[in-house]
Amino acid sequence: MKKLIALMVLLSCSTYSQDITDAVRFSSQSVNGTARFTAMGGAFGALGGDVSAININPASSAVFLDNKFSGSLDLTAINNDASYGGGFNSTSESDFDLNQLGAVFVFTTNNENALFNKLSLGFSYQRTNNFDNEYFVSGNTTETISDFFLENAQGVPLDLLVPRQGESASQLYRFLGEENSFSAQQAFLGYETFIIDAVNPNDFDNISYVSNVFGSNFSQNYTEITRGGSGKYTVNGGGMIGDRLHLGINLNLHVLDYRRETRFDEFNSGQGVTDIFFDNTLRTRGAGVSLQVGGIAKLTDDWRLGFTYDSPTWMSISEELIQGIETIQANSNNPSVFRPDVLNIYPDYSFRTPGRLSLSTAYVFGTSGLISFDYSYKDFSNMEFTSNGFQFQNQTISDLMTSASTYNVGGEYRIQNTSLRAGYFVQETPYKDEAFLGDTTGYSFGIGYSFGSATLDFSYQRVEQDRQGILYFTGFNQESQIQSVINNYMLTLSFNL
Hints:
22 strands, 7 helices, Porin, disordered N terminus, mainly beta
């Protein structure tokens, strides 16, 4: 009964594994698509005629003259240069994957009285983010990870951290997790491995704790490995009114699968606990729906304007977490190991991403080439956890996030059956403080060859971004600084159906 009463108090301050960094990640999307699309920097909002263009403007399908299929494979290589506590490390990661797959079917009519003289129907899958990444940092700081366990423990009754007779440590850890008390679980991890101790160890009502880690300088290593991705399945409908106006609508199903493994190692030469090894494995799955409407208007035979509205994405997200910890004390050869082998399954929650407005323009130089420009606006402060119990996270979003614009420009020049392409884009940071995440910039090049009814395209894209690497689950003030360079190679086969 004592445990139950204490847990009812703790529920109001329970902490979930979801953080704002992940919320931004799930609300963003990279410039992905066919090789032609990526080679031109994703600037297709006023052009259409490409399967991937449908994902940024639904009216793009109505531009097609014939039924079309396209499929794309890509190779992505990521290099991260990270600095932390005076140390510098470089890591690399590569991934080969299916980037997009889709088809568009075009239906025309000879009825002069019909509102639409052409209708289109499209189906596609497109990867919106690739989460495969890893980085490693090492250095010396004056902060210790014991502070994380200490902060989570303050206010937790000692009664919650002591197993009952016949109850194992793993069973108690599971019990705390079943009551959704993340903070109490973290306190128990620290208490069980002697990182922290109660101020009054003989008083079960004790709510104050002290650290058993001493010293002023700590050597630390941190490894983070992420896997998975997010994608979008789209059902599209479009139509052309007269020969100047194209309209379209998309119904999108979004899916994500995100896995993050972290390991934090800390060493010091003082008394008490000298070595700490802390592991976390987080798995996040989600699904959601969104709607897009758009139009493309041909002001002249050569000049086009485009408009798109992306609704917010309403997502349902589930999370699972596994933790383990090991410590070594000074003058002891016996480590304290606590690996509960418990899968924490958190209650599903709802999350809403921000909507987006896009304007675009393009100029087509007959059959010799074109140039295109897209602008989009998204207010990340409108992200919201719509389930109960996330007031703190939503307030953090309001405090940290702001609106962000994206600029895409691309061009294409045709020489008989060969097309040469180039593009550039800038995605502004969604954070008010750019130290958290800098602007993302990218440039690209590509070439395509038409065989008549089929086309083979290749593109190269380089993306650069600077960000802070947040040491998850530690709450450190000092963060790592990461410079990321992403090199993407894309190959697309398209043909008429």
